[in-house]
Amino acid sequence: MALANSEWLQGSRPYKRISAARFALGAVAIVLGALWVFGALSAVPAVAAFALIAAAILLSGESAADTPADAATVDRGAPAELLPTLETVLAGLPQPVIALDIQGEVLAANAPALAVAPALRHGEPVSLALRVPEVLDAVRRAIASDVPQRVEFIERVPLERWYEAIVVPVALREQPLRPATRLVLVTLDDLTPLRRVEEMRADFVANASHELRTPLAALSGFIETLQGQARDDPAARTRFLSIMQAQATRMARLIDDLLSLSRIELNAHLRPNKRVDLRNIIRQVVDGLQTLARDREMEVRVTTSADQVEVLGDRDELLRVFENLIENALKYAASGKRVDIALFADSARNEARVAIRDYGPGIAPEHLPRLTERFYRVDVADSRAQGGTGLGLALVKHILNRHGGRLTIESVYGEGASFTAVLPLAAAQAKAN
Ligand code: ADP
Description:
about 425 residues; Beta-Lactamase
């Protein structure tokens, strides 16, 4: 049986019924005492009448509340003996769980629940600690209907978090022929990580579609122009075809980067295990980028350790890392005229470090933490003009993570940037395995 809302929130309790009985007995005792004092009643009938009335009041209270003939479930507070068991069971559960009596007062709450709602106190209405109308309504509905309820809600302070609350009415029977005690269990599930992944996935699809649509729109536009007014203009045709080629290359690169990212994510748990000398990798990448460096009138200086700097890695993926980092320096820092690449083995830390330092415009501090996010660019137009996809540094980060390494980025705005790839040395990894 559900209690009225106001009664539920105020936390009416069974002990109030006992207090009422005491009050009635007190009143009877005073009336009988007064009759005896004023001589209207002698002592023996007064005591007998008191005993009879007391028995009648106590028995009627008990039969109404606690002893239905068929031992059915009744609405009453949880007996004190039940609480330790309840607390032990809740303490063993990993997710936040709160047990309430059917007046909505807290009987027990485990540590994860207290982390979500620190104001939860035994014996106090749950509404004081969990001020979430959706959950309080669900508790009321569960009590009224005896049917489990499920609601979702958002906590905005101090940080936005999504929760799911499952409210389950339960009946606990302590002894076979005794009536069961009705309780409500409220389980809270933090849906925030799930929601964030969903949001990221949606953002990613939206970004990828947008990035693909932009060159596609340019290509269709130029095709129309070439079929129309530029049909007989050889100079325009040559110019448009070269732009179309650049757009098609950008699309191909985007698809390539997207596929690489998903392949690397798929293999994120597998550590590459081939010995690779980073000096060869750097040499190969620098040779491959000579034309770009010449076009941008930039000098690339390489300082490598005399000894081999071996890591356990995937050769193609590591080529991709240094291609991206060195190409970025050539694209975005051409004004600095110079790129310094330093490779050395830090044997004290068992790490190989490759630092790519440029002297270009540098990167403002607010962008630094976001540079490795997919599609994040300081200047979108500049990146597109350079044929960028916005995925390069995301790829670098994922590849280094898969190799047990990391990327650090330092920059003084206006004075250039330094991107350092750190990888565990092969010798250290072989020892660890
Ligand atoms: P993109 O395909 O746009 O080059 P990246 O993920 O490789 O994508 O780089 C993200 C952004 O970081 C670039 O768009 C650029 O704004 C910035 N960036 C990367 N490297 C440098 C650098 N050496 N100097 C200045 N800005 C850089």
